[in-house]
Structures are given as structure tokens and as C-alpha cells.
Amino acid sequence: MLLHVPQVLDAQELARVRQALETADWTDGRETVGAQGAQVKRNHQLADASPLKAELGRVVLAALERNPLYFAAALPLRVLPPRFNRYTGGGEYGFHVDGAVMISGSGPERLQVRSDVSCTLFLCEPDEYDGGELVISDTYGEHEVKLPAGDMILYPSSSLHRVLPVTRGARLASFFWVQSMVRDDGRRRLLLEMDTAIESLRQSQADPSAVLQLTGVYHNLLRQWAEV
Q: What ranges in the chain are assigned the alpha helix state H?
């Protein structure tokens, strides 16, 4: 499931994040990938131990908590703390598949997340840079994604994907992975479609007993498929 989640960050939050990243201390993005990923990755990231990364990550997570579309689509169980990257001067990330298990921190703070859902939150307007499209490949072909600042794309972590070279300006983004309560992408899609239909019926003042019955079906399917 490839899903555009609009306006995750509001204007004030976006300005706060952008201002903080203007003077950030960036490190080589290859430090957070394995040997294969390092061959095709050319960008910069905030270090995992960076206090700024943790601060801005909390801003993103707080915004996600109030976003019903994100919750309905991802059905999050665990979320890896958001990371932040920067592409400039031809920087790119060639085709790759995200690791099956993502790890953050160490010792008592170590967090392991099975990567079911990948999320990229765009922090720059499309006209601020050339190139930098996120290309996601699935059974229907390749999809180029370049969203307004504050918007997010959500897609299966099993997807082959890349970031095209940035030839002008800078592309800033936050990215993270979600371990869903429902690991199967097809089942998550069905649940999202049912949830969306139920909400539309509720707003159109459809037969309350039918809406109640469908709501029960939704929760019974979630109960059957969820791993919590």
C-alpha cells in the first residue's frame, strides 16, 4: 500500500524543524547502513546519538499521534525513533530494500523494530530542489514521489526503492520505520478501506445498526490478525 498522508506537520512545526536543521551537524549517511547499502548511498544524516535528532524526532512523533489517517493505515505497534537526512550536490540513494529489523540505541534503551511500514516525511517544498524524487517499485511499476513540505509517504518496507540524485538545492526529510500490529500489507489495506468506508457511512448518517455491524466486523478482523 502506497499512501500519501498530507499535512503531518503544521506550519509552525515545520518552521521549527527547518530552522533547527539549518545549523545541524551532519554525518555521512553510510554510517547507518550495511556494506551493500553503503555502495549506493550518498547523503548526510543526523547522528543517531545527536540530541537534536531526539528533539526533532519527538516533534514528528507528537504530530503522528494526532493523525488518524497515519494510525489507520500503519496500525503502529512500535516506531523506530525518526531519523533526518539531507541530499545535496548530486547526492542519491540507489535501489535498495530496507532491512527486515531496524535497531536504535543500545543497552536498556535498545529498540528493535520489525520494518513493516516505511515512512518518508518531506521537509522541503518541491520547488526548493531539483531531483530527489523517492522512487518506489511495486507490481504496478515505478512511482516517483515528491511531496509538499510537511506531507508524508507511507509504503511497505519490502518495496524496492531509491532516491534520485539532487542536482540543485537541498532535500531534507525525516524517515522512520513502523512495526505494525498487522504485519501483512494486504490485510492492512483491507482494514484501512473498511475503516474509511465506515467513517463515510457514519458521516452520511447511514443506518446506525448497519454501521455498528460493520464496525464489529472491522474489530473482529483486527482481533484475528493483530500481533500485540
A: 11-22, 35-38, 51-65, 68-74, 185-203, 208-225
